Amino acid sequence: MANLFPHLLNGLSLGLLFALIALGFMLIVGVMELINLAHGSLFALGAYFALVIIAPDPAWLGPLGESYHALPLAARYALALLVAPVLVGVVGMGLELCMRRTYGKKAEYGLLLTFGAALVLEETIRVLWGPSEQYLQVPRSISGAFLFAGLIYSKYKLFAALFAAAAIALVWLFLERTPYGAIIKAGAHDSEMVRALGIDLTRLRLLVFGLGAGLAGLAGIVLTPIWGLRPHVGVDAVIPAFLIIVLGGIGSFWGAVLGGILVGVAVGLTGAYASGWSLLSMYLLLIVVVTVRARGLFGRKSVLEA
Amino acid sequence: MAAVPTVASPWVPRGMALLLAVMATLPLWVASIGLYQYLGVEIAIWMIYGLGFNLLLGYSGLPSFGHGAFFGVGAYAFGLFQAWAFESLLLGMALAAVAAFVAGAVVGCFLSHRRGIYFALMTIAFGQVFWFVAIKWHTVTGGEDGLLNIPRPALELGAASVPLNSNVALFYFVLFVLAVVAVALWRLVHSPFGKVLQAIRQNEERARFVGYNVWLFKWAVFALSAAIAGLAGSLFSMAQQSAYPDVMSLHASGVIVMMTLIGGGFVSFWGPVIGVAVYFLARDVLGAVTETWLLWFGLVFVLAVLFRPEGIAGAWQEYVGSVPSAGRRNRGTEAPASHIER
Predict the structure, then answer these.
(1) Could you tell me if B90 and B238 are in contact, meaning their C-beta atoms sit under 8 angstroms apart?
(2) Domain coordinates of chain A in residue numbers?
(3) What is the pLDDT of residues A53-76, one digit of tens each?
(4) Cα angle B75-B295-B171, degrees, rounded to a multiple of 5
C-alpha cells in the first residue's frame, strides 16, 4: 500500500487544480444557469496572455523593453498572475455582452453560442500565437524537484496545488464573507427576488461572468506549465470542469471543490494501475455518480432541468 | 398513437427530387468549377449523418454534443469487419449501423430521462468515453493512427459486381444511400412517431400527460439517430480508407451541431443538408483563400445563433413567406421556430 501514497498525493494536487478550473465554471452556472463551453478557451487565453506579459516582444515596449526584461523572472511571473486573469475577465465580460440576446430563450442557445465562442477564441489564438506548442516560463525558485521521504516531487506541482488551495479559499471568503458574495449567492438562489430588492441584475451577471472568466484564466496560467501550452489546450480544461460541476451538483461551491478532488484522486489512483487509461476514470466516475444521484453530490433542483 | 392526426405528404417531395437530381449531375461539372470528385463523396456522407442527427436536434429538441462517437463506432465496425471477417460491402455497412445502434441504445438508457443542458452534458461525457477508448485501445482500434488500409469492397448485385474504387463510383453509391435515408427519414418525421417527437420538443411534460411514454420515444430516436450516424461512418471509413479517432472528438461532434444549426435544422428537414453543403464549400473555397477559415466560420455560427437561430432554411422560409401566395395560409402568423413543416 505504501507505494500508493505518491499517487494519492499526486491525485490530490491534481484535484485541487481541477477544482480551481471548475470554480469559475461553477460561478457562471450557478448565477446565470449557463454552461460556458468557452471556459476552456478562456483558460488557454489566460496562459497566452501570461506568455506575453512574462516575455513580451521587445519591440512593443520601445525603450522600456530592455529594463522590463531585466526584471527578475519571478517579478514578471507575479505580474502575469495578477494582470492576465484581469484581461481574461475583460474578454469574458465582452462575451457576456454578446450572450444577452440569448437570455430568456432555451438554455441550448447559450450552449451553442459559447461553443461558437470557444471555436472563435481558439482560432484567434492560433492566428496570434501560432499552432505550435509553447512554454510558459516559471521562476527558478519553483521549478525543479525536491526529495521528501525518499521520493522525488516536482516543486512546481506543489506550488500549483498550494496556489490552487489558496485561490479556492479566497473565492470562498469572497462568497461567504463579503456583501458581494451574498448578492451572488442570492442571485443564484432566486434572481427574481434579488431584482425585486433593487439590485442591478444585469451588472451582477456581467461581473460574475468576468469573475468566472478571470478564474479560468488564472487556472490556465497555473496549469499550463504542467500540461504544456497549445491552442487547443482548452479542451483538456473545459471537459474536467463540466464533469466536476455535474458530479458535484450544479451551483454548489463545496460540490465543485469535492468533485474536483474526487476526480483528481480517481485519476491519480487509476494512474497507479493503468497510467494510459487514467483519464477514463473521471468519465466513469461521473456516469456512476450521476446514475445513482441524478443531481450530483450536492445538487438541488435547478432551472436547467426544465 | 393512432390518435395523432397525420398530414398527408408525398413520398418524394419536390425539393428532395431536385436535390438528388442536382447531386446526380455533380461528377459532370464539379471538376470544371475547380473542385474535385472526392468532395461530393464527403458532402453526401455528411448529409446522411446530418439528416440523422437532426432527428435529435431539430425534431426532438435533444442537443447531442457527442454524436461523433456513433459515427466513429460505425467507421471502426466497418473497418474491423473487413479486416477480421471477410470483405463485404453491404454486410459491413449493416454491421456498422447495428453496432452504432447498440452503442446508442446503451448510452440512451443513461440519457433518456434527461433533457436540456443535462442531456447535452451527459452526451459530451459519453462522447468523450468513446473517443478516449478509441485512442487508447491500440490492439483493436490502432490508437491515434486508427485503422489503415480499409478496402472499398465491390457492390455485389447478384451476378454483377460493381467496383467502387473510383471516387465517382463511390459517389453514386453514397448518393443512393443518401436517397434511401432521406426518403425513409422524410416518411418517419411525417409518421405518428415523428409527430410525437415534435410534441416532446415543444413540451415534454405535456406529451407525457397526454399519455406517451416519453422515455421510450427519446431512447428510440437516440438509438435510431446513432444507427444512421454509424451508417454514415461506415461510408466515411470506406471513402477515407481508414478510421481514426478524430471524428469522435468533441470538436468533430460540435461541427455537426454547427452544420445543422447554420443550415436551419430547427425549422426545416433540409437544414442539415444545406448546412453540410455550406460547411464543405466554405472549407474548400474560403480555405483556399485563408488559413483561418474556421475562425470566420465560427464567427458566422455565433452570429447565426444570436440573430438567426432558424438558419439559412429559416431565412429562406421567411423570404418565401413574405411573398403572398394562394397556397400558403397564415404562414406569417406562426411562430417561426414552433414546428418543422418542410
Answers:
(1) no
(2) 24-232
(3) 888 776 676 677 677 777 788 888
(4) 35
